[in-house]
Design goal:
two-stranded antiparallel sheet, rod-shaped, mainly alpha, 4 strands, single chain
Length: 162
């Protein structure tokens, strides 16, 4: 196994399901109990720490990032792409997807707020409208009261005349 292991073992393409949950940093980086990052520079199999100025392994890692790799044509990945370019494209794609999702969320939130506001307006009590209706009822009651008083006076006058 290399720098990253599949639960301490080398990667097996036949067992790729659930790989993200099994990925680990190679235990050789912790051989003495402390993090031995020099093993990244000198190699996982190195028995002793080499000079700090030795950059051969690091340069090999950088060269590997720039080496064109081929991919299957149905994946949507260019057939000849470097890991560096693929990673940059993936980060850009994720950033664009995040911005699109935020815009969709904001639009949906605004639409939901408009609907909730309309619902509150239709279900709530409109005080101005209720006051107008109350004044109309009061005026109608006063008018009916005057009519009844007038009819009562007319009947009393008619009975007194007979």
């Amino acid at each position: 196994p290399g720098l990253f292991t599949d639960n301490g073992s080398a990667f097996s393409a036949a067992n790729s399901v659930g790989l993200a949950g099994r990925l680990q940093v190679n235990d050789k980086l912790l051989a003495t109990g402390a993090l031995e990052v020099w093993r990244v520079r000198d190699g996982l199999g190195a028995s002793a720490q080499g000079p700090a100025s030795e950059a051969g392994q690091i340069n090999a890692f950088i060269a590997a990032l720039d080496k064109p790799l081929s991919s299957a044509s149905g994946t949507g990945i260019p057939t000849d792409v470097t890991i560096r370019d693929f990673a940059a494209e993936m980060i850009t794609s994720q950033a664009l997807e995040r911005v699109k999702s935020e815009n969709d969320f904001n639009a949906a939130s605004s639409a939901a707020e408009v609907v909730m506001s309309a619902r509150r307006n239709s279900e709530g009590v409109n005080i101005d409208d209720e006051m107008q209706q109350l004044i109309l009822i009061e005026q109608s009651y006063a008018a009916n009261s005057r009519i009844l008083s007038t009819v009562s006076d007319m009947i009393d006058t008619l009975i007194a005349a007979v």
